[in-house]
Structures are given as structure tokens and as C-alpha cells.
Amino acid sequence: MKQIDILIVDDEQRYADMLARRLALRGLRCKVRYNGQTAIETVSQEPFAVVLLDLRLPDLYGTDVLKQIKKHRPETVVIILTGHGTEKDRGRCMALGADAFINKPLDINRLESIISRIKERAE
Amino acid sequence: MTKALNRMLGTLWPRFHRSHDEHMNPYYTFQDYRQIWGMGIFILITTTLLPLIIMTLIYYQLVEKSIDTESLLRTERLASNTRRAVSYFLEERLAALTFTVNEMGYDKLNDSEALAEVLRNLKLGFGGLTDLSVIADTGTQVAYAGPFNLEGKDYSNQNWFIECQRNDAYVSEIFSGYRDVPHIVIAVKALRPDGRSFILRATLETERLIQTLSSFKPGEHADIFLINRDGVLQTPSRHYEGTSHRLSIPVPPRAERTRSLMMADTAGKPIVVGYAYIETQIAPTPFILMVVKQKAGMMKVWLDLRHQVNWIFIGSAVLIAVVITLTSTAMVNMIFDADREKAKTMLMAEQNSQLASIGQLAAGVAHEINNPLALINETAGYIKDLFMIKEQYKEDPELVEHIDSIIEAVDRCGTITRQLLGFARHFDVETQPIDLKHMVADVLNFHKKEAEYRNITLHVDIPETIPLIETDRGKLQQIILNLVNNAFQAIDNGCFLDIRADMAAPDQVRIAIHDSGCGISEEHLKKVFEPFFTTKKEGQGTGLGLSITYGLVQKLHGDITVQSKTGEGTTFVVTLPVRIKKESQI
């Protein structure tokens, strides 16, 4: 079974850490980045199967980060995880190549099922 | 018939009496329309009718006064004429006696044959003479001509004889003598050649006098008669005879000339009395001439006229009152309508701004709460994860249950914040042509199973004539979905849901969603579009569904209203423009 690497990008550090721990408990390898710039750098250095991306970041727009990731590694699955996503945001993100759009607070089971579907596809 | 009457009353009766929009009261400029209307009518009617009333009363008084003066004058003139005739009647006869005594002298008259000749001649000249007698200064009757032989009778103690001796002539009252025929005695004194005096006395029938009097009588309401100075009637009176031949009204005071005055008769009716104390140039008389007229009779023409004037007055007063009431009602109605429109607009503006500010506040709160909420969610989830891993807690259902309840609460809060944000957010509106019939069918598809299961009758009436609507598909779908959801929650099994559409205006589509459910009470009806207002049990509804629907309809430049009656059902009516104007997009 191929190991899934996940990058969590969220400026709310404690939230990102907590989510990373929960996913780790589910056997997923997680890294955490707290701003857009470091996230883009990280993705360009090593591949991730899934990126969980917040739309509101301190330095960059989430959509710009999404564009960069898709540019560097188009195969990366990007799941938008945001606190106040509008229908318009969803439409824009999907148009930019996002694979899913989830509102906070999230249902971990739903996230897990999305990831496992991706895993199946990868296999 | 009743309809026409109602319509007429409707124009007289102002509209504010029928309006009971209590909740709009604070928005009216004028509160007491009843008072404004009443005062308006009162002031207008007073200012128009008061001068009219005063003028009429003054006119009545002037006319009555002039009629009084006129009737006094006329009565006086009549009395004066009659007096002259009566005086003349008596004077003529006294003069005839004076002429006789001077012409014939005592010696000739003392002869009964000669006296009878004189009586005959006088009867020829004047008529109405009964007898003649000559009385010596001792009071003894010395000669007599007439039907009774009273020769030798002594009059020396009688009142008339004494008076005649003193005044040289005498006129008696009218009295009935031995024959019970009313008559007057007149007498004149003359000197004999030897220096002693004698008296020639004549008895007159009163018939001619009474004829003379009645020839002056002008009509039904007038009465002409003679009384003596004590008020005893001398000639018959039709209306004013009291007990024992006395006058029933007071005897007027003595006056040299003919006079007239107003008084009241025994029944209290006003009368005009003209009177004269009759004097002749030869002798005083005991008579007072009375002319009595009833004022009512003289006023009859005027009273008839006044009757007509009164009717004209009443007619015009009613006309003025009706016209003023109509005008006032129309004016007050216009003000009231304008005021009501203003109040409606203000109420709506207030509701809108309330909803908008509540929306902004709610969005702000939702925004701020969402992040900590997400953190709570993950932390609780992590704790749960940890416990699930550790064997000792895995089997402890209580712990897991508690954590699950935290997660469930967070989930509920998440729903609320999402809906709040949806309520407040101003999305771009993306328009596309939409077939309303298809959309409603799509939405009802979600509910088909439930409707079958609950035996709910769905009825859709959307005519083919409804054009394609250019609007935002997602939002319109959400609006219809929300309203249908709402209706499904409100109705019991076996009820019906009715969706129909028509054109409210050439450029406006109206969609009515009617359910036969439990209805909404009046106090709740005002609040249904407010966020967090719900009548459902705690935890079962967020109270945001209808406020979101309201926000969505606003975004589509439409309008939503609700009508409901407890126990009968509820109708939501959404009016949408057929085409949203681009320039007014938010």
C-alpha cells in the first residue's frame, strides 16, 4: 500500500496541528505549514498526495497558492478547507482545479472517505 | 340597492374608520383622524351655517316688528273710523233733538198731538226712534208720544235726569227697559221763555248702531263692539264676552284719542286692541269702542311665508352639511391614504433595515465564531480518537457519548454559522433563463417520496403562458426549496400543498405556495422573516430558513409576503421580476 502524504496549510496553528494529529492517528503522514509561501516551497520540494488548503492565509490568497501548487505538481489533490466558503468561492476554486471544497468545522469521516477514494484511485 | 347605499355611505364615512393596522400606528403623521375629520366638519358647518342662522333670526325679528307696528296702526285706523261713525250717529240724533226744542219751544212740545207729529217726522228723518217725552224741571213727565203712556211719571230722582240737568244733554248706556229690547236714551235740556228749563228725551233703538258697527268689521279675526267704562258689554262681542256681560280682557286706560295696544286674551293668545272713549260735541257718552283683532290672524300670511322660508333654510342647511361632509371626507381620505402609504413605506424600511443590520451582526458573529468552533471540533475529535485507540477507554460508552455530544453541538453551531453567513452575504447574481415549471417539478421531486408516504396532495398550477425568467438558478431553487420544506414541516399527513404562478404585472411573475397546515398566529406572522425566529422545539430548527429566503428574494429584486390564518393554512407569495436589471446588481 502506498503511503499517503498530506500537507495541511492553515494559519490557525493549533487547528492545523490538531488536524495533523487526528490524521496521523488514522495512519496518514502529515506536514503542516502556516502560510502560503512556505506551503508553495514545500510542495515544490517534495510531492504530496493531498494538500488541505485554507483560503484565508496571512500572506497569500488561498487561490494563488492553489494555482502555484497545480502549476508545480498538477497531480496533487487539493482539498479546500475553509471557514466561510461561499458558492462563488467554491465555483472559482473548482475552476482552478481544486478537487473538493469543505467548510469548517469539518466532519473527519467525510475527509477520510474523500482521501480513501483518492487512495483507491492512486492504487 | 344595499350596495348603492353602502357605496354612498362609504363616500360619507371616512376610510380610517375601517382601518385597523395597529402595528402601523407609530408610523402615521397624524394619530387622531377621527378628531381631524370631526373638527373639520364642525368648523366648516359652524362658519357657514351660523351667519345664515343669525341673518334669518334677525330677518324674522325685523319682519315681526314691522308687522306689529303695521297691525297696531291698522287697528288704530279702523278704531278711529268706527269711532267717528258712532259719534256721528249719536251727535246727529242729539242735534236733531236740540233743533226740535229750540224750534218748537216748550209750549208746543207740551202738546201731545204736536209731540206725536214731531216723533213721526223724526222717524221719517232718522228712523229707529221709539218714543219722545218732555220732562219739566221738576222731573215730572209732562208730554209723551210713543207706544207707552208714561205721562205724569216722576224722574226727579233718576240718575239720567240729574246728569242731564247738570250737562245740558245726556246719552245713556244701552239697556233693556220694560219691553226687553235694548235701547239708548238721549236727552237735551232747553230753556223755557219764563227762564225755567225742560228736557226733551228720546228712546233710540240700537239696531242701527249695531249695523253701523258691524259694517266696519274687516274679517273673521276681528271683533268690533262697545263697552261702558266699567267693562260691561253694550253690543254683542263674538269672542270677548266674559261672565255677566262683562269684557273678558282688561278695560283699556282712558285716552283722549284713539289708541291701540298689544295684550293677551284669556287663552294667552296675543291680540291687538284698538279703542276710543267716545265723546260727542253735545254730551259725554259712557261708551268705549273696542276693536280687537287676533294677532295670529293678521300674521297668517307672514307665518305661511315663514314656513316656506324655514323649509328652504332646512333644505340648504342639509345640502351644505352633506357637501361639507363629502368634501371633508374626501380630503381626510386623501391625507389618510398618503399617510398610510408613508407609514407602510416607513414600516417596510424599518423592517428591511432591521433585517439588514441583524444580518450584518449575525455575519460578523458567525465569522468570528467559526474558527474557534473548528478548533473545538478538531480537539474534541482528537480526544475521541485518543480514547478510541486506548484499550481501557474503548469499551467505555459514556466517554464516547460525551465527546460525541460535543461534536454534535459543534456540528449544529457550524450549521448555524453557515446559514448566517448565507443570510448576510451578498453574492453576485448570475442570470440565466429558467423555466419555472421545470424548476418547481425538480424541487418537488425531492419530496415525492415523503408526500406519498404522508399522503400529502401536491397540486401545481403553472400556466404555459408564464415566460422564461431570467434570474439566478441556484437562488431561485433555494427559495422554492426553502418554502416547500417549510410547508412540508407545517402540514399534517393528508393535507395538501398548492403551488401556482401567474403574472402580477407584464414584467413580474408571482409564485404562491399555499399549504393547508396549522397556520401562523398573527403575532408570529410579523416575525417569520427575522433570523433565529422559530416555533420549533429547541435544536430542531435554526430559525434561519425564512430569513435566508427573504434575503435571497431581495437579491433577486423580488418581494415576499406571507398571509396566514391559524388552523387554515399559510400562503407565501414571491413576486419576481421576469428579468433582473443588470445595473442594479449588487
Description:
The complex is a heterodimer of chains A (123) and B (586). Chain A is 47% helix and 20% strand. Chain A has five helices and five strands; from the N terminus they run E-H-E-H-E-H-E-H-E-H. Chain A is an alpha/beta fold and 123 residues long. Chain A has a single domain, classed as Rossmann fold. In chain A, helix 3 links the parallel strand 3 and strand 4. Chain A has a five-stranded parallel beta sheet, sandwiched between helices. The model of chain A has no long low-confidence stretch (mean pLDDT 87). The longest helix of chain A is centred in the C-terminal third of the chain and has 15 residues. Chain B is of the alpha+beta class and 586 residues long. Chain B has a domain of 160 residues: 2-Layer Sandwich (Heat Shock Protein 90). In chain B, strands 1, 2, 3, 4, 5 and 6 form a six-stranded antiparallel beta sheet that branches. In chain B, strands 12-14-15-17-16 form a five-stranded mixed beta sheet, covered by helices on one side. Chain B has a four-stranded antiparallel beta sheet with strand order 7-10-9-8. The interface between A and B is medium-sized, with 20 and 26 residues.
